[in-house]
Amino acid sequence: MRRQEKKHEGISTILTFMLIPLSGFAMDIYIPSFPDMVTALGTSISSVRLTLTVYLIFYGLGQLLLGSLVDSYGRYRLSMLALVLFILSNILLINSSNIYFIIGMRAIQGLVISIIMVSKRSFLVDVYDGDKLKNYTSLLSIVWSSAPILAPFLGGFLQNYVGWKGNFYFLAIYALIMFLLEYRFTGETLKEQKPYRISGTVNAFKVMLSTKDFSMGIVLLGFSYAMAIVFGMSAPFMIEHDFNFSPVMTGNMSLLSGLFLLFGGLLSKAMLAKSMLKKLRLATIGQATLACLMFATAFWYYSLFSLMFFALLMHFLMGFMYNIYFTYCLTRFPQYAGAAGGLTSGGAYIVTSFASYSLVSLLNVGDQQTLAICYFILSLCIGLTFLVIGNNLKRADSQ
Fold first, then answer.
1. Which of 50, 114, 187, 390 is most exposed by smallest CB count within 10 Å?
2. For the chain, what is the domain count?
3. Is there a single domain that holds both residue 256 and residue 131?
4. pTM attached to this predicted model
């Protein structure tokens, strides 16, 4: 088996940080192309939205079910195989005009990207320790969060000058370059392969899911992130159809949305010492209030400014809340750190995918008022979740 060479650890670390954003790029880069895909493929809006939902579902399932494979079969071989499959899926997708085939390729992409993400996170744990590991781990989350911010911004330009297929050309070329660099400079970092025992993973999941504040917290995270996905599924049609702007404007507005989400996360980090329950309650009340104002305002004023004003504030509070509870879930079971990370992230993505797709389909979201209704329903669901786990959070605050 090819091992990681010590002299290449530095460049391999850089390549890790270059690969981590791939999950976000694969998820969000083609959002400005949604209207064009509906026309070019001769399909429905709901079918195009389903390509994103399916990716999220299989990305979540992959982290849940396949994450532990990298401890048994190694990081290097699985991530390289996943890159090859990702490249091929993009090539096949580009050359297809069948929406159902495209949906199938997006399912494969969700699975293989999950393997790449787990492998690259594990690389840092294998190679580094102590303060250096903490530094790289904190940097990892910042790099990961940059992709959903930059991806639609880039996608808007690709759509404007190349068309919807330009997004998937970009993904294929980026993955090919990364494959060649990985082949040249990286190798296996797993020191000792462990036999794959599904029973151990199942037992860990049972313990965590039977703990109310953890299991309901995954649901809470899913509802929270669904706000961003509902916006991503709906905004291109409002911006490009209702307001007659180009896909570049869709990308610019998605960039702003991502930045406000990031700012909310940074604020939550700065307020780490404050009561978690109070912070979450205030954020939830704030979201519900903003959703009501967003709905009422649309009766007398509906513009890109009003739409984005409320959406940006909603996403700011979403980033604030998500960062608080995501950190709580990751540290809730230190004895199952790896499994807790996979279950939290994977489970939340699955909840997000079902909640977002159900809302945009049932409400046929296409203007400020229906988007406000989605935001209100999700904030109400989050509030009800707090009622279930409030006592647990009080105990966490007192410790």
1. 390
2. 2
3. no
4. 0.83
* Cα separations in angstroms, 258 against 32, 219, 261, 317: 14, 22, 5, 12
Give the position of tokens 């509902």: 230
Here the CATH number for the domain that contains residue 142 is 1.20.1250.20
Residue 147 and residue 279 in one domain: no
Gap between the Cα atoms of 123 and 115, Å rounded: 12
Whose structure tokens read 């297809």? 96
374 in the same domain as 254: yes
- Spell out the per-residue pLDDT of the chain, length 399, in tens: 677 677 777 888 889 889 988 988 999 899 999 999 999 999 999 999 999 999 999 998 888 777 667 777 778 888 999 999 999 999 999 999 999 999 999 999 999 999 888 888 777 777 777 777 666 766 676 677 777 778 888 999 999 999 999 999 999 999 999 999 999 988 887 776 666 667 777 887 888 888 888 888 899 999 999 999 999 999 999 999 889 999 999 989 988 988 898 888 888 878 877 777 788 889 999 999 999 999 999 999 999 999 999 999 999 999 888 888 877 776 777 666 566 777 888 888 899 999 999 999 999 998 999 999 999 999 999 999 888 877 666 665 555
Domain residues for the domain of 351 are 197-399
